[in-house]
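Practice problem 4.
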């Protein structure tokens, strides 16, 4: 209460505390000290009751009655506990029972953070009128949230809201749900390991004459000799023939794969890959122990299929160039460029990981090999400001190691990716570097409903909503000093959201700057990227659709029919999930309408001004021509520095959503800047021969160095 924002959900009052929990944020937790959330527990109780760490879950909002009034010490650990919700209108308490489950970790502050940052949190105090005042019983909520009324009406509603409610699935449904992910996984692995398989196969083909002398003569022995040999024992020549056939198939199949794959063609261009395929065929003919007819049977069908694929498919290679795009005659852009070291925004100078050959590898491998230490977060809840809502947004706030919030350093608000949170490795990398190296404060805004946060009403998460960002940024703005920079840093879907926020809010933005990493501007173009839809989106969609159906089935059923919810369970890509869930549930006209609201360039029409195209780019909006008249749309309304960082080999975000980077940068007053690299993947940009050493350093540093350049020229809202 003394910090200004609640540490628990403001619309679900805790009567008493949850079962004992190890405070993983406190340094003493590593030595086995357990901090019970029961205020009445003694220090001895806390130290004596050593239990397995309980992961934070939605059930932490509700409290066991056995802990009230000094209940039995062991009662809280019962397999089934009685929990209580407070009815704010009638102040009566109704009991609900369920099994205590566990999920993601919950971190609270260590004592140092709580006291040294008291002034920081006391400024986070502007809350909606529905927020109950815990210090005054007379200021209880006068209106009981309808969602809580629905939950409390009977046990069935309660269990539907809290517990997973999966749809009954047939074996065919299970297969249809698994098929896209299986297909995508197989294809991604074939492409990821293609170079290794080619090296293995070609090495065998080259070295085989050294292992077997005169294979052709031995294979072409008389029929009688061959029959006797096969009848007695399998000869080395026969084994060699089998392995040669396998190696030939491997070499030609995988050389065909790299020749027809867009990311390999982008990396090496098509002619060298075609030459590689042809040389592989010649090598097979030259080393083959079989006659030419048999060898032709191995190579010809695969080569024809590869040729057809090359001729028929549109590789859709980027039509834009890598580089840093900004408006040359803009004073703000020129000032930032002057203060921003070029070394900090350079990646394609050989510093990347050379053995990661394509954007697929630069995207996936860092997630497997990079490891970032767990971070200490102080969790606070910011109530939303939409009329009639009883929702709150999580802010996981990290401070420097000494726990002191510094007013002379930028504050960062991080927006994570599609299914992420404050526990994502790349988010922790940014938090770790900014708090330990820069001594900045970093807050991670959790998308409503993710990381096991509840949604009490029917306004489920969707990615065209910017009001949550505005509320969270507003809370942080109230806590910062007047000359302090508040910058947003978004990744992937978070990048799309933060760019859209600055475009829609214009001068009303609560952020002083933003960096959008691996995002998209005109999301209407994203469905054109077939490779992303087939190879990467199935896994992303599966995670999100499972979350939606299992956590929010009761809300879905209020607006969608059972067949429509069933369609959601079969969504095989994010585009399919957007159409079947987000469009229908939120009453968008169609997928194009939803995407037009999601992207910062969702209302873009044309760069061309039919009356005077020169006037558009030389004089622009400042000359009195509105963005709508120009056809550029709301991207021209961005009124604070926005940096979009993308790699042209991104296998998920489509390069076409950026349109013409220079024309985008020239729109408006020059606040939009684009940094495009040739390599980097999606939320990747690995460094050095061992990417694990530096983690996501380049990606984290490019964001912070941009913000620091702005901070030095003191371009803030004030």
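Answer key:
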């Amino acid at each position: 209460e003394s910090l200004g924002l609640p540490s628990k959900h403001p619309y679900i009052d805790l009567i008493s505390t949850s079962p004992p929990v190890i405070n993983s944020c406190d340094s003493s937790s590593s030595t086995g000290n357990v901090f019970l959330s029961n205020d009445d527990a003694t220090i001895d109780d806390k130290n004596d009751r050593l239990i397995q760490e309980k992961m934070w879950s939605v059930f932490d909002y509700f409290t066991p009655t056995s802990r009230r009034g000094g209940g039995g010490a062991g009662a809280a650990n019962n397999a089934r506990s009685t929990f209580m919700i407070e009815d704010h209108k009638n102040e009566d308490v109704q009991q609900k029972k369920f099994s205590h489950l566990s999920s993601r970790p919950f971190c609270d502050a260590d004592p140092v953070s709580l006291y040294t940052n008291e002034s920081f949190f006391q400024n986070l105090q502007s809350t909606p009128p529905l927020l109950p005042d815990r210090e005054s019983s007379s200021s209880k909520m006068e209106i009981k949230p309808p969602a809580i009324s629905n939950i409390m009406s009977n046990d069935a509603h309660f269990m539907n809201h809290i517990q997973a409610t999966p749809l009954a699935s047939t074996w065919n449904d299970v297969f249809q749900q698994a098929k896209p992910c299986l297909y995508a996984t197989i294809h991604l692995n074939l492409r990821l390991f293609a170079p290794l398989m080619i090296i293995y196969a070609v090495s065998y083909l080259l070295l085989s004459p050294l292992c077997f002398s005169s294979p052709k003569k031995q294979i072409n022995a008389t029929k009688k000799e061959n029959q006797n040999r096969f009848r007695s024992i399998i000869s080395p020549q026969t084994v060699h023939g089998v392995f040669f056939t396998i190696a030939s198939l491997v070499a030609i199949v995988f050389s065909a794969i790299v020749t027809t794959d867009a990311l390999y063609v982008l990396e090496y261009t098509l002619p060298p890959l075609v030459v590689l395929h042809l040389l592989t065929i010649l090598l097979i003919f030259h080393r083959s122990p079989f006659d030419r007819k048999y060898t032709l049977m191995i190579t010809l069908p695969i080569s024809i299929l590869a040729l057809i694929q090359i001729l028929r498919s549109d590789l859709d290679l980027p039509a834009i160039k890598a580089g840093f795009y900004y408006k040359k005659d803009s004073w703000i852009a020129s000032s930032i460029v002057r203060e921003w070291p070029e070394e900090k925004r350079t990646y394609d100078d050989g510093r990347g990981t050379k053995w990661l050959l394509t954007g697929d590898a630069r995207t996936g491998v860092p997630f497997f090999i990079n490891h970032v230490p767990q971070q200490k977060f102080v969790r606070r809840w910011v109530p939303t400001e939409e009329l009639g809502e009883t929702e709150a947004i999580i802010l996981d706030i990290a401070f420097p190691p000494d726990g002191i919030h510094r007013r002379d350093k930028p504050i960062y608000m991080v927006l994570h990716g599609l299914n992420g949170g404050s526990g994502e490795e790349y988010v922790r990398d940014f938090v770790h570097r900014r708090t330990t190296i820069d001594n900045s404060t970093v807050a991670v805004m959790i998308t409503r409903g993710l990381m096991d946060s509840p949604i009490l009403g029917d306004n489920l998460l969707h990615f065209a909503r910017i009001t949550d960002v505005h509320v969270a940024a507003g809370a942080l703005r109230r806590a910062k000093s007047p000359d302090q920079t508040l910058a947003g840093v978004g990744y992937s879907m978070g990048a799309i959201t933060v760019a859209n926020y600055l475009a829609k809010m214009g001068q009303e933005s609560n952020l002083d700057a933003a960096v959008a990493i691996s995002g998209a501007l005109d999301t209407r173009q994203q469905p054109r990227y077939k490779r992303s839809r087939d190879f990467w989106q199935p896994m992303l969609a599966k995670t999100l659709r499972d979350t939606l159906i299992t956590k929010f089935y009761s809300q879905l059923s209020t607006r969608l029919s059972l067949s429509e919810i069933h369609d959601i369970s079969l969504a095989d890509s994010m585009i399919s999930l957007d159409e079947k869930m987000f469009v229908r549930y939120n009453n968008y006209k169609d997928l194009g309408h939803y995407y037009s609201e999601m992207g910062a360039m969702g209302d873009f029409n044309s760069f061309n001004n039919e009356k005077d195209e020169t006037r558009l780019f030389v004089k622009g909006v400042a000359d009195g021509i509105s963005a709508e008249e120009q056809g550029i749309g709301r991207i021209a309304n961005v009124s604070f520095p926005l940096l979009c960082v993308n790699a042209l080999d991104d296998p998920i975000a489509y390069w076409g959503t950026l349109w013409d980077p220079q024309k985008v940068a020239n729109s408006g007053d020059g606040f939009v800047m684009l940094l495009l690299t040739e390599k980097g993947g999606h939320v990747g940009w690995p460094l050095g021969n061992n990417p694990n050493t530096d983690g996501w350093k380049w990606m984290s540093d490019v964001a912070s160095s941009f913000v620091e350049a702005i901070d030095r020229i003191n371009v803030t809202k004030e």
